[in-house]
Structures are given as structure tokens and as C-alpha cells.
Design brief:
The chain contains 18 helices and 25 strands. By secondary structure, it is α/β, with parallel strands linked by helices. The strands form six sheets. It has a nine-stranded mixed β-sheet with strand order 2-1-10-9-11-12-13-14-15. A hairpin with a 2-residue loop joins β18 and β19.
Length: 497
């Protein structure tokens, strides 16, 4: 089944229902959205896009981003979402690797990408609004729907192949395991639609919910609180760093999060103190999911009831976990050969099931290294407790081996964040002739506080083993992050060379 059928059905059933908002202004109903998508499809057909072709989308969040999904899918082509903050050279590399010759973008990127090898279209909602509708081209569950290039935090980006069937299973798992969505809810797209926020639009379409694009085209704390107050029943997909920023902004401005119904957070570690503080401020609105591009949004879930729980003896342990397996997959902890370990042992997180990708685009070598014995080797380290909760211990290539002992950065980071002077911290390893590797802490200090490494060292010695504490503390004004708020540890390691 083609994913675009869901929009066609909702548009037919709820013709006049408000669907798309730009800021607080409704610019179209569900039937308008379907007609605009069909109009875009017609434009793509005229420039030669055919079944299975990749169509790139290079834009900030805007109504036309949502249009692109359904216009491309309805004709049986493949969405290639590209981070709008990438350098033009990086964008061109992705386009070449994906064998993509058509780009949906805006005026700025159109100028940067101008090339005789590329067909560039600048879709505009008002110019696309027509009356013609076309039935979606038939697609099978194994057909490619979305080609997602990894962030490249550990090297060249790889194209993750996401099928129609994978996205359908992700949607089913969301309704079963994560949360319910109702027609009066509003999906607010503050996180990049080139990532998880874009994928989460699908279940909101299926539910007949509203879709709101911030006028800023991205994440702005003041704008989010204002839109939530006006539009009501907001659903927000956010990185942990975004949650922290929202909490800090609300505390400073004495806001209570009125209008925000659900925040699904994912994309990196949510430190214990940060989620405790956020829950105390906003109440039981938070849900955590763990996923990867290779298994989109569907590995584990920590439901809002567990995030908000303070009565269980293990509530802190639960908050430090990423929850338990979603219904569409299996999880094991294993070694690099793909052989499972016993519960209670730290190892690499392995996943299999209908949500796992078939492989990387045009990269058999990377696929064979990542899919081992039928398991997706996530590259993340973790441990599963006796109740089935998975706790992360960082990326496998982030683990530091010092003096023959394994040190997991997340553990050290959690300890340092307990110090009242530390705003943010990231732990990396540096080569050492004596130890093999040594622990280095990059620290962002809170305003008004002094940077005193000796105090940080004493603090670590009070909470963790001596061999785990950082050998060096480096003060930085900010930590390098990608478009989604994930800390780029490769950039930090480069500073140590």
C-alpha cells in the first residue's frame, strides 16, 4: 500500500477539516492539502520524475515540506530529505550518491545548487492549489519511500533505505506503544522535518489532526509557547536539548506550558536531572522513544506514566533508561559478532523486526557490517535489566578503554551534571601512551559560575571510581551539535589532536 492513500482517505472523509497552519493562520483543509500534493505530483511528472526516482527536499520547516511527502509518494517516487543546514558541497555529495536530479527547495538553496545536472523546483502553496486529484500509484511494503542520510557524526553519511512497510509499522507501533492522537490535536513542527519530526507527520495525517509550521521555520522557545497557547493540544517532537531549553525558558518567564499535550523526546541521552526538572515544570506530558534512522523511532518507549512516576522504588532507574521494546521489534544485547549476551551484561544493542531497514543505499559493505546474523547492530552500548528496561551507555565507538578498563561516557557525564556549576558536558577519549586512552571532559559552565577543575575532580571522586574520572577538563562556550541537537563528539576529538 502507498502511504499517500492515507491522506487521500482523510481528505475524502473530512473534506473541510482544517489541516495546515502557518503560524496561527489556517492556510488549507485536508482536501486542499491533497489537491496541492497532486498538483506538485503533476509538476514532477512534467520534469520527468518516474516511479522509484529520488526527489530531494531541501527546505526549512514549512507547509510545502508536508506537501512534498504526499506529492512524491503519490506518484511512486522516493523522498530524499536533506538537512537544510548542510554545506552546499555536502548536499551535492548526497544528491550524487543518491543519483537524484530533482530538488524541491527555496530561493536561497536554488542559487547555491544551480547546476545543469539538477532540476530545481520551488514549490509554493498558493501556486499549487488546484482542483485535480490523482489516485496514488500502487506500492508494495518493500518499495522504498524515504531515503534518509545519516548525520555523518562518525564519517561519510550513509543512505538508510526506509520502505512503505517500515513506516506503516512505525505508525502502528506508535498507536499501540507510544500515544494516541486525536483529530483536535496539532502536530507542531519545531524539530527538523528532514528527521524524525517529518516521519511523525504520517500518524498525524492518519488521525486527521492539524499540522502547524512555525513562522520561524524551526525551534524558537517563545514562538512554541505562544503557538501552544493559541492552537491548543500541541504534539511536539523534540531532542533532549530542546526539552532543556523549553524548561529553562519556562522557568525564566514563569510559563506553565499551557496548550502542550505531548512532547516525544528522542535523538540523544536525556540526563536524569533534566527530565526530572522538565516533568516538575510541565507535568506528565513527556514520552521517550529510542530509535535510529535504521529502525525509525521504533526500538523502545518510556511512556508518559513511567516518565512521570515517582512512587516506584526504581523510578530513577527507569528515568535513566530508554524504556522497553516496542511491539514491532526484538532487542538483544550482544557482542560485535552478533551473538547475544545474557541480560544484565553490557554490550551492543541488537535489533530485528519489521521496522529494521533492508540496508544502506548502494553500500553493500556498510550493510554487511551493520546487519549481522539478521540483527541490526546499532552501534549503541546498553544493558537490559530483569524487567526488560534498556539503559544506554553511549555509542560503541564512544566507549573509552583506559588501562584495560571500560569507561562509558554517559556515566561520567551524569555525575558531572550533578555539580552546580556545570551546564553541559561531553566526555571523549584521547590517546595516551600510558593508559591507551584517557578521559577528557569538555565543560560548559553556568553563567555566574567559575571554572574550577579541581572542584570538578573532587566531585567526581565522590561519586565514581578514580579510574573513571576525567584526566583533563576543558572549558568551552558551547558544545558542537548537529541540526537535531546531537553532540558531535568527532568535532571534540579533533580539538584534542
Amino acid at each position: 500500500m502507498n502511504l499517500a492513500i492515507w491522506l487521500e482517505r482523510i481528505a475524502t472523509r473530512y473534506t473541510d477539516k482544517e489541516a495546515v497552519f502557518h503560524g496561527t493562520k489556517c492556510i488549507g483543509t485536508y482536501m486542499d492539502l491533497w489537491r496541492v500534493a497532486c498538483s506538485l505530483r503533476r509538476q514532477l511528472e512534467k520534469v520527468g520524475v518516474k516511479l522509484g526516482d529520488r526527489v530531494a527536499v531541501l527546505m526549512h520547516n514549512c507547509p510545502e515540506y508536508l506537501v512534498a511527502f504526499y506529492g512524491v509518494w503519490s506518484m511512486g517516487a522516493v523522498i530524499l530529505p536533506i538537512n537544510s543546514k548542510l554545506h552546499s558541497k555536502e548536499v551535492k555529495w548526497i544528491l550524487k550518491n543518491a543519483k537524484c536530479s530533482v530538488v524541491l527547495t527555496n530561493e536561497l538553496h536554488a542559487f547555491e545548487l544551480k547546476s545543469p545536472d539538477l532540476t530545481i523546483l520551488i514549490p509554493k502553496w498558493d501556486n499549487l492549489l488546484g482542483k485535480a486529484c490523482y489516485s496514488p500509484i500502487t506500492r508494495s511494503s518493500d518499495d522504498l519511500a524515504w531515503l534518509f542520510y545519516t548525520s555523518g557524526t562518525t564519517g561519510r553519511p550513509k543512505g538508510v533505505m526506509i520502505t512503505h512497510g517500515m513506516i506503516k509499522k512505525m505508525v502502528q507501533s506508535y498507536f499501540t506503544d507510544v500515544d494516541q492522537i486525536f483529530s483536535n490535536d496539532t502536530a507542531l513542527y519545531a524539530a527538523p522535518m528532514s528527521h524524525g519530526a517529518g516521519l511523525y507527520s504520517v500518524m498525524h495525517v492518519l488521525a486527521g489532526a492539524r499540522h502547524a509550521m512555525p513562522l520561524s521555520g524551526g525551534f524558537d522557545e517563545k514562538e512554541i509557547f505562544s503557538l501552544a497557547k493559541r492552537l491548543k493540544s500541541i504534539h511536539l517532537f523534540a531532542a533532549p536539548t530542546m526539552v532543556k531549553r523549553l524548561t529553562n525558558f519556562a522557568k525564566i518567564n514563569d510559563l506553565d506550558g499551557c496548550g502542550i499535550r505531548t512532547i516525544v523526546y528522542a535523538g540523544g541521552p536525556m540526563y536524569l536531572l533534566d527530565i526530572i526538572e522538565a516533568t516538575e515544570k510541565f507535568g506528565p506530558i513527556f514520552i521517550q522513544v529510542y530509535g535510529q534512522g535504521e529502525c525509525p523511532m521504533g526500538i523502545t518507549v518510556l511512556p508518559r506514566s513511567k516518565v512521570a512516576d515517582r512512587k516506584s522504588e526504581k523510578w530513577k532507574d527507569r528515568l535513566q533508561s530508554v524504556g522497553f521494546a516496542q511491539s514491532g521489534i526484538e532487542i538483544k544485547i550482544g557482542n560485535k559478532l552478533g551473538n547475544p549476551k545474557k541480560n544484565g551484561e553490557i554490550g551492543e544493542i541488537m535489533v530485528r523486526g519489521e521496522l529494521v531497514m533492508p540496508g544502506y543505499w548502494d553500500n553493500e559493505e556498510a550493510t554487511s557490517k551493520t546487519i549481522v546474523n539478521g540483527w541490526l547492530m546499532t552501534g549503541d552500548m546498553g544493558i537490559i535489566d530483569e524487567d526488560g528496561y534498556l539503559t544506554m551507555h553511549g555509542r560503541s565507538n564512544d566507549m573509552i578503554i583506559s588501562g584495560g578498563s571500560n569507561i562509558y561516557p554517559r556515566e561520567v557525564e551524569e555525575v558531572l551534571l550533578l555539580h552546580n556549576s556545570v551546564h553541559e558536558v561531553s566526555i571523549v577519549g584521547r590517546n595516551s601512551d600510558r593508559w591507551g586512552e584517557e578521559v577528557v571532559a569538555f565543560v560548559v559552565i553556568k553563567k555566574g559560575c567559575e571554572f574550577l577543575p579541581e572542584n570538578l575532580d573532587k566531585h567526581c571522586l565522590m561519586h565514581i571510581a578514580r579510574f573513571k574520572r576525567p584526566k583533563h577538563y576543558i572549558k568551552v562556550n558551547k558544545l558542537p551539535k548537529n541540526n537535531y541537537g546531537k553532540i558531535l563528539k568527532t568535532k571534540l576529538r579533533e580539538k584534542l589532536k
